[in-house]
């Protein structure tokens, strides 16, 4: 535990945490995007379709967020304490938005009054937009570094989290999820709504790429240490090449009407962006603002080897079950949606 080099167990849990975060971004990312796009619905029948598209899968997708938080708590408790204390108000806002979104899906059809349904449709849309922004804001702050004292305690404020770099990455995450959600929605519907979803995917993709470039430029000013670390890691180049290839191939697949391929390329680009973030942080989990050598590394934040070993056994049993359930649900509920289908 005192060694500067992470042990095999610590590296395994760093990787597993990254996989869980990427899984959440890919799976819940598209249904957050669908929720944001529901705000563009033109009538009752259309707005209903957005809820129907994600109704069978959204709650299973959020399991990945809970599992990621649980793994951080169990494997890296010191990092969990620093991050959750620093992002306390942001996490409360996130939970409020996710609760509003879940309640909206369950309640909107309980009363036939147009005002009732429109209110819950708005809650569904805003409850999807806020988490999308906050996801990117959180990543931006971690990359920049958090204001920590010598004991790893957060010393900043909530408003201090809303700096230009974090807000840029928040908008990037929003556009990324909207593109991902539009591609998913385009594969679930037909006709005019599908054409509009394809157009939204194209616009969101363009904004995603533009904000990725702007965010990279801002990294030179707000988080230069992250860019200095990257070139020395041989894994960076294949990850970066895969990310650029996925982003470049997405509009071509979309233009040819290959919606499934476009969706898979979007998922790959999201996962590879998360991988790039992880590589830029390594060996840190929570960098300290203004102190490249400070913050919490994998070794400093880690639980004991015994705890990591026990948790790895539990993960070895639980993760295959989660993956099997995910595959099963998506296979059962694949296919197109049409107005009038029974659901939310």
| Helical run tally | 13
- What level of helicity do the residues show? over 70%
Tell me the number of strands: 2
In terms of structural class, how would the helical and strand content be classed? mainly alpha
Q: What is the spatial order of strands in the main beta sheet?
A: 1-2
Q: Spans of 5+ residues with little confidence (pLDDT < 50)?
A: none
In total, how many domains does the architecture comprise?
1
Q: Would you write up a description of this structure?
A:
- The chain is mainly alpha-helical and 344 residues long.
- It has one domain.
- It is 75% helix and 3% strand.
- The protein has 13 helices and two strands; from the N terminus they run H-H-H-H-H-H-H-H-H-H-H-E-E-H-H.
- It has helices at 8-37, 44-54, 58-75, 77-86, 88-107, 114-144, 164-188, 191-222, 224-229, 236-255, 259-281, 298-301, 305-332, and strands spanning 284-288, 291-297.
- Strands 1-2 form a two-stranded antiparallel ribbon.
- Strand 1 and strand 2 form a beta hairpin.
- Helix 3 (58-75) packs antiparallel against helix 13 (305-332) and helix 6 (114-144) packs across helix 7 (164-188).
- It starts with 7 loop residues before the first helix and ends in a 12-residue tail after the last helix.
């Amino acid at each position: 535990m005192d060694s500067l080099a992470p042990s095999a167990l610590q590296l395994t849990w760093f990787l597993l945490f990254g996989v869980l975060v990427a899984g959440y971004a890919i799976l819940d990312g598209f249904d957050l995007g669908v929720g944001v796009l529901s705000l563009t619905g033109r009538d009752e029948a259309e707005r209903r379709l957005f809820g129907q598209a994600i109704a069978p899968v959204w709650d299973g997708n959020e399991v990945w967020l809970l599992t990621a938080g649980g793994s951080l708590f169990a494997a890296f408790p010191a990092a969990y304490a620093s991050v959750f204390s620093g992002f306390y108000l942001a996490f409360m806002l996130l939970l409020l938005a996710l609760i509003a979104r879940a309640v909206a899906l369950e309640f909107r059809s309980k009363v036939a009054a147009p005002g009732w349904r429109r209110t819950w449709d708005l809650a569904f849309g805003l409850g999807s937009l806020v988490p999308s922004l906050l996801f990117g804001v959180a990543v931006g702050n971690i990359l920049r570094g958090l204001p920590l004292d010598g004991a790893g305690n957060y010393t900043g404020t909530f408003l201090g989290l809303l700096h230009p770099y974090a807000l840029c990455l928040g908008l990037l995450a929003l556009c990324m999820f909207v593109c991902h959600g539009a591609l998913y929605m385009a594969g679930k519907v037909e006709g005019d709504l599908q054409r509009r979803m394809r157009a939204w995917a194209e616009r969101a993709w363009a904004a995603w790429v533009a904000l990725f470039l702007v965010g990279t430029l801002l990294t030179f000013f707000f988080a230069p240490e992250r860019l200095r670390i990257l070139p020395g890691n041989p894994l960076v180049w294949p990850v970066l090449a895969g990310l650029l290839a996925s982003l470049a191939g997405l509009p071509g697949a979309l233009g040819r009407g290959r919606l499934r391929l476009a969706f898979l390329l979007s998922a790959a680009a999201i996962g590879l962006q998360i991988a790039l973030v992880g590589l830029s942080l390594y060996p840190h989990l929570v960098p300290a603002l203004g102190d490249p050598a400070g913050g919490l590394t994998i070794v400093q934040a880690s639980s004991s080897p015994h705890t990591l070993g026990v948790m790895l056994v539990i993960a070895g049993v639980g993760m295959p079950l989660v993956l099997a359930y995910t595959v099963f649900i998506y296979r059962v509920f694949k296919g197109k949606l049409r107005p009038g289908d029974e659901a939310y």
